Structures are given as C-alpha cells and as structure tokens.
Automatic annotation (TrEMBL):
Intracellular or extracellular location(s): Membrane
Entry protein name: NfeD-like C-terminal domain-containing protein
Organism (species): Candidatus Stercoripulliclostridium merdipullorum
NfeD integral membrane domain mapped to chain residues: 20-85
Membrane topology recorded in Swiss-Prot or TrEMBL: Multi-pass membrane protein
Amino acid sequence: MSFVNEFLILFRGMTIPAGICLIVGLVFIIIEIFQPGFGIFGVLGGILAVVGIVLRAIVGDGNVFAQVFLLLLFYVIFIVIAFLILAVTAKKGWLNRSPLIESSTAVAFGHSDGTADYSALVGAVGVARTDLRPVGKVEIDAVLYDVVTEGFFIKNGEAVRVVSVEGSKITVIRAE
C-alpha cells in the first residue's frame, strides 16, 4: 500500500477511545513542555499516547507498523512545534505576558525581606578597607559593605563613591 492509503486508513479506522487517548496525551505532553513541574503531565501524556497507539493498532486494518510510525511521527512533529513556540516566545518575552505562565511573586519587585535595600547608598562616599580587585570591602558611615568596582583596581585606604545598586550588588568607583 502507498503512504497516502496508510494515512487515510490510519484516521478512518481510528476508534473514539484511541482518538481521545492520543489527543489528551498530546495535550498533557504539551502542558508539561510549557509548564514543567514534577513530570506528572508528561508521564500521564506518555502513558495515554502509548495506550492510544495500542488501541489504534488493535483495530488491525492496514499495515500496523506504518500506522504506529505515522502516529509517532505526528507526536514528534507536534512536540517539536510546541518546543519551538516555547523557545521563540520565551526569547521574545511573549510567554511571560500569557496566562499560561504565572510570573508574579508575593514580594515587591527588586528586593524582598531577605535582601537589604542599599539604594540609599547611591552617591555616598566611603573608604576602601581592602584592595578592590574588583571585589572587596568598603566602609561607608562606619558600616562595612561588600562592593564591586567597575573593573578598576582600587587600593586599600582610597576614597570611593557608590555609583549604582542592583539588589545586594553595590558598585563603586574611585572618588575624585
């Protein structure tokens, strides 16, 4: 038989339980791709896919091996398409604005109770207490802070100025 005949026989002889298992299995696998978790949806989707393929093969019309191959080929094509959609949307940030992905948190953006807010230090002047190459300690208002320079070596005892703060990362330059 030709490929087209096997393709037509594949869907003409599909029973309702086999079709439901195949479709729900594919949906579960795609859910696992977009919202990874403990693998429950992926495992259930795989099991349902196998059950659907077996139910379709039991019907027995046409070449069973060709039909199993076609079903697996369809699954691979749909999974690759879903993965490509995930990769493109994640790169462009479209998926973050989608209700499929929950991206909100319970804490304020930028810092949480576990991260001290050092934003008030921007513009403050202090003294290097270790050599900054580029990481070290700086004393500002009698308090020691772990800081990083913008790539320049600063000697112990030199004056520094805070230029930016990102979370707990304090960036300094040599004060002039």
